[in-house]
Amino acid sequence: MDTQGLRAPAGERSAWADLPHRQVREFADRAMAEVPALAQEILDTICREHPRMPLLVDESGELVALVGIRRALEEFLQHLVRGSGSPQLHLEVFQDFGRGEGQQGRTLDSLQAVYRLGVRLAWRRLAEIGHEARIPPPAMYDLAEAGFAFLDGLVDQTVRGYAEAAARQAGERLRLQRKLTQALLGERRPDRSRPLEEYAAAHAARIGWTLPQRVAVGVLLRPARDCVAPAVGAEVLLDMESERPLLFVPDPAVPGRCEQLHRALRGWTGAIGPAVPLADAAASLRWATEAMGLIERGLLPSGELLHCTEHIDALVLLPPEELIEALTDRCLAPLADRGPTQRRRLAETLLAWLETRGGAPEVAARLGVHPQTVRYRMRQIKELWGDEVEDPDRRFELELVLRAQRLQGRLSLPDH
Q1: CB 302 within 8 A of CB 267
Q2: CA–CA separation, 278 vs 15, rounded Å?
Q3: How far apart are CA 71 and CA 177, in angstroms?
């Protein structure tokens, strides 16, 4: 509504502004006398059509909604008499109403439906009073436009209260969610004599999360600092407060859950640990963190959600880097004086032989070379390692370090 109330647009004359003040006063007095009954009628109708709407009372025992409707009608009618300026829309009762609706979890659509119903009922009665006061139709049209503009102001007040309640609830949920994730990971548990499930159940109940029998914990890399939280669904507990967001996926084997998670996290990089009993959630996170470290080193692919159970060889062989390097130096010492190309070819041939346990044709098929080439290389290998390649323990160590080198990208032999 413009700052001059019922004024017409520039260049036009307002039909309402042309009314004699006496006639405006007569209309307002008649309408003001009916405000209590009209407000009660509006509230009764709203309650019939929207039976779940809460009816709160104020300190004096009056219904808050009834007070709000009555004040809105009175303010609008007083504005008509004043004839200038905008109605005073600082009606806290409507902000309170919006807060209450937000806390109850109702939508803004339901609020607007209530307001539309109230305006329709009010306008019907005001139109009858206008007819009785002989207000000409053009002036009533102006009045109708002013009424809808006034409604917009009330809606703004309500939406403000609704938004405040929503923000407060979201903040409270994040706080409780954070406490729950910390409890599941064994962090900040004041009373460790109580079972984890018992301690976490209270926090879970307050956010409507059912404690599962098994859980898989994941860790994510944000695609951007200001990215919004992924829509992983209410079943998945998401902790966006951590530097790296955490996922708690309940009962990951439930049909469809894995597919839903991958759709929601398209474009994100992350790793999810194995499914474990709830009390072992920290162990699942530990494996996910290990996998994330390998992703950041370029040893596992990024840009997707990886499952640790699908990369067990990398997680077992690569994290103990110093131990693997020490074992590699010892096991591959016979290749130390060979050139890089020969060293790589012999290592790939040895790994193919260890994995296939076959003869020259099988090894050649794995390498994509001629069997005679394999025979020549195997003679070199036996000259370099001697009887060690026949010892089961030495063969196991050799295969271990060669598989680690393949995972590190040093060998091009494909995994079989």
Answers
A1: no
A2: 72
A3: 40
Burial of 408 (C-beta count, 10 Å sphere; 0-12/13-18/19+): middle
Tokens 């005001």 -> residue: 126
Q: Which H or E element spans position 153?
A: helix 137-184
The rounded distance, in Å, linking the Cα atoms of 147 and 119 is 8
Whether 278 and 214 have beta carbons less than 8 Å apart is answered as yes
Tokens matching residue 81: 């008499």
Buried b (16+ CB within 10 A) or exposed e, 171-191: eeebebbbbbbbbbbeeeeee
Q: Which pTM does this prediction carry?
A: 0.55
pLDDT digits (tens, 9 = 90+) for 55-64: 777 777 778 7
| Strand spans (E) along 160-245 | 214-221, 237-239
Q: List 217's β-bridge partners, or say none.
A: 248
SS3 206: helix
Other beta carbons within 10 angstroms of residue 382's beta carbon come to: 13
Calculate the average pLDDT of the chain. 82
Query: Could you give the CA distance from residue 386 to residue 366 in angstroms, rounded to a whole number?
Result: 23
Statement: residue 11 has pLDDT above 50: no
pLDDT of amino acid 375: 94
Q: Backbone phi, then psi, for 186, in 5-degree steps? A: 80, 15
Nearest to 31 by CA among 143, 188, 191, 155: 143
